[in-house]
Amino acid sequence: MHDDAPSLCLRNVVLPDGRTGQDVWVDEGRIRAVGPALTVAPGTPEHDGGGWLLSPPFVDAHFHMDATLSHGLPRVNASGTLLEGIALWGELKPLLTQEALIERALRYGDWAVGRGLLAVRTHVDICDDRLLAVEALLEARRRMAPYLDLQLVAFPQDGYLRSATARSNLERALDMGVDVVGGIPHFERTQAAGAESVRLLCEVAARRGLRVDMHCDETDDPLSRHIETLAAETLRLGLQGRVTGSHLTSMHSMDNYYVSKLIPLIAESRVHAVANPLINITLQGRHDTYPRRRGMTRVPELMAAGVNVAFGHDCVMDPWYGFGSGDMLEVAHMGLHVAQMTSEAQVRACFDAVTRNAAAVLGLEGYGLEPGCRGDMVLLHARSPGEAIRLRAARLLVVRAGRVLARSAPASARLSLPGRPVEVDWTLPG
Ligand code: FE2
User: Residues 240-255: pLDDT tens digits?
Assistant: First the structure.
């Protein structure tokens, strides 16, 4: 075992683009070479990839690590709605302690690493004047830095303008080292206040040279159009490629004619879009009888227009969602179904939405499997991205900068059927 060395060679893997029989050599934490039958430096630890799929690690473009693993505290969301979840989080906030926040964040970080999830953008609520969660997640970020990239978004959960102290708290949080400017325009008191919050928050980001990621139009109201303002402000302030609209669920319910103008504007402004399939399918459409809307944003249409679209997990065991385990393949699986993205190219696009597209949202340096990239990768018990999504494939090896962080056994079952004593693992031959 050489799991602590920053160098290794994985032999005989298939890459997400379909290249088979590839070796990947990581030297001093960076990928040195990729190709068939590589000659590597003597003494480099070698691992048999078994012909399985090697991917860059999973990346979660949208999460709430301050709320995760708090399910049932102080009670469970009875209606299952976004608004009861926000109210429930408000009940929990005064009860939070820094120790408990850090402990839950670290526990979730362990879950993430076990799933090959090595980078997470988490929103952190700044509407508690103590900024307890900010302090806790900054500490969690510091402790997890050797094995997980945590990017923090200053998130005014109770409204940037609606909450009396959100403006000063947001500046304080950014001063403390929070990375990204957040927002929640659809939760402000009026449409006009929502648009004003978008304008002010984008100006904060431009002034500080930071990225923006707003919860934007997380509603079934087709007239919630803050994404339009977000894209226009991005252009006005020259923030192209540095701004993300998260959720964008109102777009599901918008008029097609309006969307035919909106999507080109999003593409022109190079605003990233993040859908959160598990949460959107759970929270949206709650005011409908039947037919009941799915509520997720228009993923294939955005992708077809050239918009970078990622999928986020958003919630795991918190006031909004009582399921999940940090498995981005589960997220991709739900996204594929909700968006009906079943063609071969679309299935691959769903895999990209939890890997390289999400890395682009975070602006991760050195992400990928090309020479020179960071030696971060996950070996999956599947032979293609589609099979990985179908099986939520076991993470056979999780590697960070050339070091093995986690190993899992392949999922299988030993059958004792009459005349058929076989072992099944649900993969298909390559
Ligand atoms: Fe969120």
Answer: 999 999 999 999 999 9
CA of 209 to the centre of ligand 1 (A): 23
Confidence of residue 429 (pLDDT cuts 50, 70, 90): confident
pLDDT of residue 4: 58
- CA 94 – ligand 1 centroid, Å: 20
Task: Give the contacts of 209 (CB within 8 A, at least 6 positions apart).
Answer: none
Distance 415 CA to ligand 1 centre (A): 42
% the chain with pLDDT above 70: 99
384 has a pLDDT exceeding 70: yes
Q: What is the DSSP string of 84-136?
A: HHHHHHHHHGGG--HHHHHHHHHHHHHHHHHTTEEEEEEEEE--STT-HHHHH
Residues identified as active-site: 218
Q: What is the pTM of this model?
A: 0.97
CA of 122 to the centre of ligand 1 (A): 8
Domains of the chain: 8-56+368-414 (2.30.40.10), 58-362 (3.20.20.140)
Residue with tokens 């139009």: 217
Do residues 29 and 14 lie in contact, with contact meaning Cβ atoms separated by under 8 Å?
A: no
